[in-house]
Amino acid sequence: DGVGDSDDMEVEVPDYRGTADFADVGFWNIEHFNRGVDNDRIKAVADVCSRLSMDVMGLTEVQDGAMKRLVAELRRRGDEMGYALLDVSGGQDIAVLYDKDTTTVSLADDILDANTTKLGAKTRTGKSAFPRLPLFARCEVKDDDDVSVKFMIVVVHLKAYVDDASSRARRALAAKILAEIIHDIREEEEIPVILGGDFNELLTNDILAPFKDTADLFAMTADDAVSGAA
After folding, report:
1. Are 83 and 96 spatial neighbours (Cβ–Cβ below 8 Å)?
2. Residue 90 — very low, low, confident or very high, per pLDDT cuts 50/70/90?
């Protein structure tokens, strides 16, 4: 979660850095990274992004104004980054930050359009499964030898309140719908799909079962979940 916040659940990995021979992908809920953030926070976030050196980073709780300032700060440091943003909810939008030297990213608006009905689904109590729509984007990352890998990234920020029954029902429905959409993408486009973001949920219960119980999907952070780190 957010840089500068004191949180016992926050873990920093200071020695990881992306490399030129691998497509490095990460996710981060920066928290309240909106147009009102001060310059110190912009620099702190830029420190993390520059150090990690991701090709593609899915971000939640961001806003266009802050992203523009972040990209400008990274450019000042010699990092040519771009971003694609989906305006979903006030100051809690979703974006993909990417290295322009290695990566191209384009929002897959056609996926959103094709799944309007599914993404508009509601629980039995009338609550939207997706108060914040997921971001779908097609990515291509090239290494130093100009060999590329293509994949779809899906960035989500599911409804909050971990212990709230209504929010849990929303997340359970969202997981079911996302698993169906990802299956369709894999069938139609025959490319890998990387799903990440802020699920506001643990992998150690049944809420996200559609992700765990589908043969075509596996959780890269399952070991972290079992140990209580995610």
Report:
1. yes
2. confident
Phi and psi for 84 in degrees, rounded to 5?
-125, 130
* Span 221-230, pLDDT tens digits: 777 767 765 5
* HSE (side-chain half, CA atoms, 13 Å) at 65: 11
Sort 171 into a burial class: Cβ within 10 Å, 0-12 / 13-18 / 19+. buried
In this structure, of 13-27, 71-85, 185-199, the range with the lowest mean pLDDT score is: 13-27
> In angstroms, how far is CA 123 from the centroid of its own chain?
24
pLDDT tens per residue, range 189-220: 989 999 999 999 888 788 988 987 777 777 77
> Is 135:95 a contact under the CB 8 Å cutoff?
yes
Model's pTM, two decimal places? 0.88
Of 16, 77, 80, residue with least CA distance to 52: 16
Spatial separation of the C-alpha atoms in residues 186 and 216, rounded to whole Å = 9
pLDDT beyond 60 at 6:
no
Query: 181: number of CA atoms within 13 Å, CB side?
Result: 26
| 65 token code pair | 């104004």
DSSP 8-state assignment for residue 122: B
Q: What would the two tokens of residue 95 be?
A: 């974006």
d(CA 118, CA 112): 9
Is the model's pLDDT at 97 over the cut of 60?
Answer: yes
CB count in 10 Å sphere of residue 42: 17
Integer Cα distance of 54 and 219 in angstroms: 20
Task: Output helix, strand, coil percentages for the chain, rounded to the nearest 5.
Answer: 30, 25, 45
